[in-house]
Design goal:
Nuclear Transport Factor 2, Chain: A; globular; alpha+beta; 3 helices; 6-stranded mixed sheet
Length: 180
């Protein structure tokens, strides 16, 4: 009987060890988002190309926070397009600059990428994530807007990277759409 119990215990532990790694090491499981980790040593989903896009997006966001709409528009390619909820597309950097007139002391637009992809040719990619806008209404009360965004990046002939498409939509009250 002891031998039978020992054999069952050994078989159970072998099965647990065989099953457990399969549950932990799922190569098809989604990678962590940059909000959780952007370290390529701890997150194998962060390739040098994706890290480049995260860094580019961070510079874009920092410039916009500091310089408002003027700085925002400066990141766009000459033929870029913006798409916003309930509004007509805005086409071309000049038209985007005309529409992006906010100053950072009146409106703060911030965003954090949650994911990115870069093409195999290395000259185009996109990021997506969550954005938040903060302003004051006429009574001085804080007004917050938030939603999801996607930025399509393209390497320009001069070697710089510019936004080709910026798309955003209002988010739900609670972020139902975060990637896990």
């Amino acid at each position: 009987m002891r031998r039978l119990c020992a054999a069952v215990a050994l078989l159970s532990s072998v099965m647990c060890c065989a099953i457990l790694p399969a549950q932990i090491l799922d190569p098809l499981a989604p990678k962590t988002s940059p909000a959780q980790s952007t370290n390529p040593l701890t997150d194998p989903g962060v390739t040098p190309g994706i890290q480049f896009l995260y860094d580019l997006e961070a510079k874009f966001a920092a410039d916009t926070a500091k310089g408002g709409g003027r700085a925002f528009a400066a990141w766009f390619a000459p033929d870029a397009v913006t798409l916003s909820n309930g509004e007509a597309p805005v086409s071309g950097r000049d038209a985007i600059a005309v529409a992006a007139t906010w100053s950072p002391d009146k409106y703060q637009l911030t965003w954090i990428p949650e994911g990115a992809r870069i093409g195999t040719s290395g000259d185009m990619g996109f990021t997506w994530g969550h954005y938040e806008g903060v302003s004051k209404d006429q009574d001085g009360n804080t007004v917050r807007t938030s939603g999801r965004y996607m930025t399509v990046w393209k390497k320009q002939p001069d070697g710089t990277w510019k936004v080709e498409l910026d798309a955003s939509n209002d988010g739900p009250k609670a972020d139902c759409c975060s990637l896990h």
